[in-house]
Structure formats: structure tokens, C-alpha cells
Amino acid sequence: MTEKPVVHSTFTIERNYTAPPSRVFAAFANQTTKRRWFAEGKSFEVKEFAMDFRVGGRESTRFLFQGGPEGAPPKGTEMRNDTTYQDIVPDRRIVLAYTMSIADKRFSASLATIELRSSGSGTHLVFTEQGAFLEGADGPEMRRGGWHDLLSKLDEELRKSL
Length: 162
Hints:
Order of helices and strands: EHHEEEEEEH
Oligomer: single chain
CATH topology: Alpha-D-Glucose-1,6-Bisphosphate, Chain A, domain 4
Strand order of the largest sheet: 1-7-6-5-4-3-2
Distance between the termini: 55 Å
């Protein structure tokens, strides 16, 4: 059997939010709020969400996948996202390293940077991910699509409290 090479990829997603940087930052920093937009959804059954939002702190999400697009894991598959916060500058920047696993088999490792910039009365968010996608990985395009969906859910969360 031939081993597949690691796929390295970097992508950036930019979004504008009507909320100021302090509110966008708070949506990443508050465990209850982040769980709503980051972990919950019709495609997942959340089994665990724990968060220690500080430099060196960890975040862990464990969930059962409930189905998705072609190539997605089968329904009932356990998945994990394990994060360590590398750098936090309130209202400006969050840098985190995270891994994703299916049934305890790691399939990716990434470094992600979230930059928040004032834009009028709102926020211009720049999300950059540098990823190593291992055997069985979702790959850069699916990951980019996943983050695009998450940042849309963040927008919905921010609009709820306007």
C-alpha cells in the first residue's frame, strides 16, 4: 500500500460584520456564545464542548457527525477538534493551533489566525489557516467551505443580539 503524501495548504477568508470588534471578539471568547455558532448545528450532535480562552488554554469539541455532502464521514462517526490558543490580543487577534480527528485518528493539524479590524461601525475579519492534511483528511477545499459556513453562523449569532 502506498502512503499518501501530506497536503499542505493556506487559505484566507475575509468577512465584514456589522458588530464592532469587541462584540466579534467576545463571540470567540465566551464559551456559551461560541458553542452556539461553532459547535451546534444540524450536522452534529455535540458530546463535549470545553473551553479555556487564554494563551496556552485549550478548547475541545467532541461530536457525532450526523451526515453531510458526498465524501463526508458516515452518520454516527465520532469526531474531535482539539485546540490550543497561541496568542490573544483582545478585540484584535486570536492565533490558535488545532487538530481534527475521526475515531481517535488524527487527520489534520492547522494553525489559524483571526484578525479583527475596525471598519466604520463594524468589523473586517480576516481568517487565515495554514493546514497539514493527513491521510483520510477532508482536504483544503472542504475545510475552507467548513470555515465559510462557521463564519456565516457567527454572522447570524451577532445579528441575534443587535
